Amino acid sequence: MSQSTVSIVAGGAGFIGANLVPRLLEEGRHVLVVDNYSRGSANNLGHIASDPRVTLIQADVSDRAATAETFRRAASIGTVDEVWHLAANSDIPAGVQDSDVDFKDTFRTTFELLRAMREFGVPDLHFASSSAIYGDLGEQSLHESIGPLLPISNYGAMKLASEAQASAAAESFLRRVNLFRFPNVVGVPATHGVLLDFVNKLAATPDVLHVLGDGTQQKAYLHVSDLVAAMLAVRARKVEGKVEVVNIGPTDEGVTVRWIAESVVARVRPQARIAFGQGNKGWVGDVPKFNYSTARLQSYGWTPKLGSAQAIARAIDEIARQQGV
Amino acid sequence: MSQSTVSIVAGGAGFIGANLVPRLLEEGRHVLVVDNYSRGSANNLGHIASDPRVTLIQADVSDRAATAETFRRAASIGTVDEVWHLAANSDIPAGVQDSDVDFKDTFRTTFELLRAMREFGVPDLHFASSSAIYGDLGEQSLHESIGPLLPISNYGAMKLASEAQASAAAESFLRRVNLFRFPNVVGVPATHGVLLDFVNKLAATPDVLHVLGDGTQQKAYLHVSDLVAAMLAVRARKVEGKVEVVNIGPTDEGVTVRWIAESVVARVRPQARIAFGQGNKGWVGDVPKFNYSTARLQSYGWTPKLGSAQAIARAIDEIARQQGV
After folding, report:
1. Which of A101, A106, A105, A98 is nearest to A130 (CA)?
2. Is the CB of A157 less than 8 angstroms away from the CB of B144?
3. Residues A55, A34: Cα–Cα separation, whole Å
4. Cβ(B107)–Cβ(B161) below 8 Å
5. Is B1 a residue whose pLDDT tops 60?
6. pLDDT tens digit string along A61-102?
7. Mind listing the pLDDT tens digit for each residue in A190-206?
8. Chain B touched by A158 (CB under 8 Å)
9. Do B168 and A149 touch (CB under 8 A)?
10. Domain A5-185+221-247 belongs to what architecture?
């Protein structure tokens, strides 16, 4: 691989990007990270932020002119052959309250990135979609061939809308699109999510951990190291068709919020008690139980190294150290 | 029904609206038609435009302030209990060329209507979605439970994006959402579509009808009278769940472009010859063959009065008269 091959990673200074960028550098690539630093931070990238093959640009890819300028900068470095689109709102309740949030950060980022890819002739898109596009289908197995897709949050809606845009772009001008439907992902640098939330709550009120909902919600969790490995494995496949849709996740059925809360307390504040709320939904847009099928991913010969419980256990320890507790 | 019950029909001065509004008036409703007249026209509504129970507003519902003003006007007439969202770009190739077209006319209209429905407490949405959300799934039966949904045009993408938004809104603040996945619909007042296109081409060049593609594309067609009847039948059902997704279409497998071309020529210019193009796609975003399942709709006890061939035959005659040929 020539040194002049460039990956653009949108939202690359966030949680996923910080774990992906080092892997792209290992391939010999130059990486242009574009991030508006609304949730991401150059600090997340640590020492790689100063790697000469990393270019950091603070810009909002929901803005057309800023996105074009970012692509011009990338093209001046070398041949840009792929965009990793990781930019999104990650605060689901905020997006339910105000639809403008997911519109701008989750939908419009995809829209403008696709316009720039067409203008600059960038052929491949790897998109961080979400299991939230499935909505609340109860006990049904959520595999890639199921429908109808009825997301219950604006976050899920704008992820599905982004998939739809990317699919149309594949027909019209892209060479390849990978739509990665993420599960709940844990690890560091943690910027949001249930583990960071619990750790921070215990720091604020050491005697009690207040949990939204009754704790029976059950979800599958993947460690970010496995997530990145899965995406790279799918990207390396020579597949037929222009659009690949794949659920990424562990092979188990997940763990409950109660188990997570108990694990965080045991690691951070063993003396704290846990106070549960009512109902099995934490907030509008939260899905109580997930039966998330990763059969397709497994059929590609890939399995995660860590199951949900192991991923959570490792991430709690990583986040506790990150937060200095 | 009180005279003060109001339906808002967005895009109501277009082809579908002109056929729907009279049926809503028959229910005793007041109807507020909002249309930007980009493709719609008050002329399409004929004598009902002057009915005292019809309020016509020229406004673009992709604009937030204009939409809020429209809803204020509707609320001043009576209790607004439903929105029919028929506004969309209908020029699929234009939307493939420039993604801003479907973004504004198909996506953003839904986005702003939903914001206004929340603000004004309007509970029910009836949305004109499309079979285009399925993309090109080959010979597979396109039923509502199939996935993944991979539209191949920005039109299809923004229709799917609109479904997704409406689904999230149902979870958060709406009472009921009907997502009607339209087939190809024919009838008058024709504003676009293959029949009007063929009739107009023959008026311009009476000796030959040039057809995009080789004529083997096969699609199902529904007459607009049946489409409106189906939507009203689904709306009248007392269903469980907040979101209904239903394919609307005839029960047959459709007719070919060749058959349509021959039928138009026979009615309009019997001496004209037909010149076919290459390939079985007319344009990017066109799906060559559709196996569109309407089993769900039939399970509700509804079937169309006209099959594809009958619908086309009637519509050719209606359009020929509309165009004065």
Report:
1. A106
2. no
3. 8
4. yes
5. no
6. 999 999 999 999 999 999 999 999 999 998 888 999 999 999
7. 988 899 999 999 999 99
8. yes
9. no
10. 3-Layer(aba) Sandwich (3.40)
Give the position of tokens 């109902």.
A279
Residue A157 C-alpha from the chain's centroid: 15
Residues from chain A that touch B285, judged by Cβ atoms under 8 A, are 168, 171-172
Tokens 């039939």 locate to B298
Closest CA to B264 of B186, B196, B216: B196
CB B282 within 8 A of CB B213: yes
Give B-chain residues touching A150 at CB under 8 angstroms. 163-164, 167, 170, 243, 245
- Distance (Å, whole) CA A117 – CA A7: 12
- For CATH 3.40.50.720, the residue range(s) in chain B are 5-185+222-247
Q: Which of A213-222, B16-25, B102-111 has the lowest mean pLDDT?
A: A213-222
Average pLDDT rounded to a whole number, residues B162-184:
97
This complex has an ipTM of: 0.92
The per-residue pLDDT for B217 is 85
Helix (H) or strand (E) holding A128: strand A124-130
Residue B245 DSSP one-character state:
E
Q: What is the pLDDT of residues B280-305, one digit of tens each?
A: 765 556 666 668 899 999 999 999 99
Stretch A117-143: mean pLDDT: 94
Every domain of chain A with CATH number 3.90.25.10 lies at 187-220+251-291+306-322
CB atoms within 10 A of CB B9: 26
ω into B183 cis (within 30 of 0): no
Residues 211-250 of B with CB under 8 A from A: 243, 245
Q: For chain B, where do the domains classified as CATH 3.90.25.10 start and end?
A: 188-220+252-291+306-322
Judge: domain B188-220+252-291+306-322, CATH 3.90.76.10: no
> Could you report the per-residue pLDDT of B207-237, keeping only the tens digit for each?
999 998 899 888 889 999 999 999 999 999 9
Minimal Cβ distance to A148: which of B103, B111, B145: B145
Do residue A107 and residue B168 have CB atoms under 8 angstroms apart?
no
**Alpha-carbon distance A317 to nearest alpha carbon in chain B (angstroms):** 35
CATH fold group of domain A187-220+251-291+306-322 = UDP-galactose 4-epimerase; domain 1 (3.90.25)
Q: Cβ contacts (< 8 Å) between B167 and chain A: which residues?
A: 135, 149-152, 157
Three-class DSSP category at A219? strand
Work out the mean pLDDT of chain B and round it to a whole number: 93
Rounded to the nearest 5°, which phi and psi values hold at B199? Answer: -60, -45
Chain A segment 20-79 residues within 8 A of B by beta carbon are none
The CATH homologous superfamily for domain B5-185+222-247 is NAD(P)-binding Rossmann-like Domain (3.40.50.720)
pLDDT in tens, B98-117: 999 999 999 999 999 999 99
